[in-house]
Amino acid sequence: MTMLSCYGLGFQLLIIAVMLSCGLINAIIPFFIFYTGLVFAFIGFRKVFLSLRTVSY
C-alpha cells in the first residue's frame, strides 16, 4: 500500500514543489510522464508477485 500511496495527489504536489524550488521547471512534465509509466510496472510486479503466492487447496 505504501508504494501505491506515492501516486497520490499530495505526494505529486510535493514532488512538483521540490522540483520548482530546485529550478527544474523544464523537467516536471517529462518526469511525470516517466512516473506515470511506472504505474504499469507496478501493476505487472503485483500480478507476478500475487501469482507466485497462490495457495492450492
Description:
With 57 residues, this protein is mainly α. It has helices spanning 9-21, 28-52. Helix content is 67%, strand content 0%.
Brief overview:
67% of the residues lie in helices and 0% in strands. With 57 residues, the protein is mostly helical. The chain has one domain.
Shape: elongated
Count of discrete structural domains: 1
Strand tally is: 0
Mean pLDDT comes to 84
How far the N terminus sits from the C terminus, by CA atoms, comes to 27 Å
Radius of gyration: 16 Å
Features:
57 residues, mainly alpha, 2 helices, elongated
Describe the protein's topology.
Blueprint: H1 9-21, H2 28-52
